[in-house]
């Protein structure tokens, strides 16, 4: 599949891309540079943030929800004014918010990243859900690097990957309260594809695309866990994937430049760019958040 570098942004850690269903623009974050990027009609706009943002996702009508290191906020369409919705792990100095997805009921599921260099007692990150009525709930813990969150087309299954451990896990969602939330059999083992699983997204047939950080590729798993497509990339650190384009058959892929040697950057100069590749199965229109105003 041909790959194009759409924006050679040289992001330190590009992450959490999506296509906005309201105007067709594509947005993503650069966590370490404290920026959000938007591309529309070939023009790129950069928004400088007051802190690191692990995720950005669309609200139902206008504006966005943004996950800063220790706080979930809502903001306007130009990222100028921020309203606190919830504080996240304020007692833990070594964690920050990372990946997220809008759930089938308008809430947001997100996880944290344990930045402890050498934890002696296990990892302390967790995965949470903020519902559309403002209820805040911890779903599970023992997480190092929360990533790969998305939901099946019918909304019954949630996907998740801890990039450090490497398994792509599945959970039964249940009703709008997640009252029957429980773990199912995993989709894929750590060795199922090159690299480690980072961000992920589900297409309209229930396949799961996985950005394989340090693996130079993105791969697609069938609902049965078989690899049925692979996109090789001219970089080693893809971080997140999202399906967009006018027909939802373009795979957008963010990437990073951190943890690259000078030799890496010389041989892979587009590291940190936003890439795009055509695919044969369309995605699902991005879900929108319905958080309390």
Any overview of this molecule?
It is a single chain. The protein has a single domain (4-278), classed as TolB, C-terminal domain (Neuraminidase). The longest helix has 6 residues, at 262-267. It starts with a strand and ends in a 15-residue tail after the last strand. Helix content is 2%, strand content 47%. The protein has 293 residues and is mainly beta. The protein contains one helix and 24 strands.
Write the layout of secondary structure elements.
Layout: E1 4-7, E2 14-19, E3 26-30, E4 35-40, E5 43-48, E6 53-58, E7 64-68, E8 71-75, E9 82-87, E10 95-102, E11 108-114, E12 125-130, E13 136-143, E14 146-151, E15 157-162, E16 168-172, E17 182-183, E18 196-202, E19 208-213, E20 217-221, E21 227-232, E22 238-244, E23 250-255, H1 262-267, E24 274-278
Antiparallel strand pairs: 1-24, 2-3, 3-4, 4-5, 6-7, 7-8, 8-9, 10-11, 11-12, 12-13, 14-15, 15-16, 16-17, 18-19, 19-20, 20-21, 22-23, 23-24
Mean pLDDT: 96
Number of domains: 1
Order of helices and strands: EEEEEEEEEEEEEEEEEEEEEEEHE
As residue ranges, the low-confidence spans are: none
The class by helix and strand makeup works out as mainly beta
CATH superfamily: TolB, C-terminal domain
